[in-house]
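Quiz preparation item.
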């Protein structure tokens, strides 16, 4: 799989955000980083996020580290806890996949 190493602008919640892909990130790693940053801004620890989303902590931490694929159900559950629209998280992931496809 190709990785992403560019700078681009995406929109989350109607705000433009410059997305800098540091090093070589896969779309999944980029999505994981976005979720960690949003949870951090809302002061939600991985332990609390796991409990609130009814997810095993080790599964959530594996997902947030990019070691495990996301399930759509997990994205919807996480998006509710973080007060996001699930489509925003899916859009972040899809954006990453498009960047990978364009680089190929």
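Solution:
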């Amino acid at each position: 799989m190709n990785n992403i190493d560019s700078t681009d602008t995406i929109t989350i919640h109607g705000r433009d955000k410059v997305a800098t892909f540091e090093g070589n990130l896969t779309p999944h790693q980029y999505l994981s980083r976005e979720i960690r940053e949003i949870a951090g801004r809302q002061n939600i620890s991985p332990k609390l996020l796991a409990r609130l989303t009814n997810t095993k902590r080790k599964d959530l931490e594996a997902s947030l580290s990019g070691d495990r694929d996301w399930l759509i159900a997990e994205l919807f559950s996480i998006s509710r806890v973080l007060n996001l629209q699930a489509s925003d998280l899916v859009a972040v992931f899809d954006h990453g996949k498009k960047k990978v496809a364009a680089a190929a």
